[in-house]
Specification:
Blueprint: E1 2-3, E2 12-13, E3 29-33, H1 38-49, E4 53-58, H2 62-74, E5 79-83, H3 89-103, E6 108-111, H4 127-148, E7 157-161, H5 165-168, H6 174-193, E8 200-206, H7 217-220, H8 222-227, H9 239-249, E9 260-263
Parallel strand pairs: 3-4, 3-6, 4-5, 6-7, 7-8, 8-9
Antiparallel strand pairs: 1-2
Helix pairs in contact: 1-2, 1-9, 3-4, 4-6
Family: Belongs to the short-chain dehydrogenases/reductases (SDR) family.
Organism: Psychrobacter piscatorii
Pfam families: adh_short_C2 (PF13561)
Length: 271
């Protein structure tokens, strides 16, 4: 399944026939924030192919969310599409409660919702913009997780999306990078707190990926978007992220917690 996001990037690919599901997540109940597009959509499709029931929480793009719903259902999986704002605590709690009401619980939580905005200089960052980055990227992760944990049990999994930028920095994405660094610390601390409950907490740190989130560079500096790459000479595809989330969600990773999977085309992070 491909999607031409913009002619300045290659079409996004979310899943292909080479990925064979084997029931790794059969009957698991999954909630993915930011699941309507990009990495979130790819994760939704991969988990659906593994037999999960998949709920996605999206912010405003109803058309994109419905496209994701169709893709989940095309895999023969149950889908639940929820609109909400991860920057709002009540909205996050309502989304969790909707999943629980539909399926009776949550076995896998994927915190993927995020936003980014570039700036040439720190003086350009308003108080409002700084706070918005932390409200959406970091506070939302806390709100959803806190609500979901009331319904999670031993053997369940939480997977957070951080970024290569948390490890290598990005001079035009200082607020975004700061939130992604916070997620690293949050993941490591929460993984230790939940050891006694048998709930694993890990994170994926993608490199540059073909997705809508990159379009903020189009009007800022299109050269950044056109030159966005990795040591492999290209951006990653959303489908190349999906299997990592499946691994961290299923029992193949039963001895993995507090860890980071770096999927970045060869960018060395030393993290």
């Amino acid at each position: 399944m491909t999607d031409q996001i913009d002619n300045m990037m290659p079409p996004a690919e979310y899943i292909n026939d080479n990925y064979k599901g084997s029931g790794k997540l059969a009957d698991k109940r999954v909630l993915i924030t930011g699941g309507d597009s990009g990495i979130g959509r790819a994760v939704a499709f991969h988990m659906a192919r593994e037999g999960a029931k998949v709920a996605i929480l999206y912010h405003s793009d109803e058309e994109s969310a419905n496209e994701t719903r169709k893709g989940i259902e095309a895999e023969g999986a149950d889908a639940l599409v929820l609109q909400g704002d991860t920057a709002n605590s009540s909205s996050c709690k309502e989304a969790v409660e909707a999943v629980v009401a539909q399926w009776g619980g949550i076995d896998v939580l994927v915190n993927n919702a995020g936003m980014q905005k570039p700036y040439h200089d720190l003086s350009e960052v308003s108080d409002k913009d700084w706070q918005q980055h932390f409200d959406v990227n970091m506070a939302g992760m806390f709100y959803v997780t806190r609500a979901a944990l009331e319904h999670m049990k031993e053997g369940d999994s939480i997977i957070n999306t951080t970024s290569v930028n948390a490890y290598v920095g990005n001079d035009v994405l200082v607020p975004y990078t700061a939130t992604k660094g916070a997620i690293v610390g949050y993941t490591r601390a929460l993984s230790r707190q939940l050891l006694s409950r048998g709930i694993r907490v890990n994170q994926v740190a993608p490199g540059p990926v073909v997705s809508e989130i990159q379009l903020v560079f189009k009007d800022f500096d299109k050269d950044i978007l056109e030159s966005m790459s990795s040591p492999m000479g290209r951006m990653g595809q959303p489908r190349e992220m999906g299997a990592a989330y499946v691994f961290l969600a299923c029992q193949d990773s039963s001895f993995v917690t507090g860890q980071t999977l770096h999927i970045n085309g060869g960018m060395i992070t030393n993290g």
